[in-house]
Amino acid sequence: WGLYPSDVQFGVDGGVYVLDWVFGWEKTGKGRIYRVHDPAVSSSSLVQETKRLLGEGMESRKPEALATLLEHPHQRVRMAGQFALAEQGAVEVLASFAMGRGSLHARLHAIWGLGMTAQRQAGVIETIASLLGDELAEVRAQAAKVLGDNRHVASVPRLIALLEDADSRVQFFASQ
Fold first, then answer.
1. In 3D, which of 93, 92, 91 has the Cα closest to residue 69?
2. What are 16's strand-pairing partners?
3. pTM of the model
4. Which residues make Cβ contacts (< 8 Å) with residue 85, sequence separation at least 6?
5. Tens digits of residue pLDDT in 56-90
6. Residue 100: HSE in the Cβ half-sphere, 13 Å Cα cutoff
7. Hey, is 65 helix, strand or coil?
8. Rounded to 5 degrees, what are φ and ψ at 146?
9. Sign of the C-alpha dihedral, residues 21, 23, 24, 26?
10. Where are the alpha helices (DSSP H) in 21-102?
11. Mean pLDDT of the chain
12. Count of Cβ atoms closer than 10 Å to residue 52 Cβ
């Protein structure tokens, strides 16, 4: 239909936004933004709660309240909780989730949050390194990724050992 989309984003309102250049890639000075949505989804309680939580912000929330957001179905809410916990330096809360309190999503966001705090707080990196032996492959993989991102030299022998892991994602992140 002559659509020239240059970007697609999902909104917190449950819609998909498409940026269109109108007449191709020539610089015509014209553009459109289309919103594609299902009114039932946009008015759902999950979408309304997501909009409310993100609109209110995370700054005034205490660590335990933020921790519950690591379990939220919406990724943006989980990420907002993760970033706020890392900003607050809530290592104990993040560590408890990373070590197994909660769903896989909560554990992964906690690992990433610990990675964000690792350079500012001593001892955090060892908590992440302890996850290299976790029973869940994705936990091992993300722990390896965070250790690599933080250039944790002491973990190199354990990361090398993970090159023989049964899971290819673990091998991939260990090799990086």
1. 93
2. 10, 36
3. 0.86
4. 63, 66, 67, 70, 93, 94, 110, 113
5. 999 999 999 999 999 999 999 999 999 999 999 99
6. 6
7. helix
8. -65, -40
9. negative
10. 39-42, 45-56, 63-69, 75-88, 91-98
11. 93
12. 11
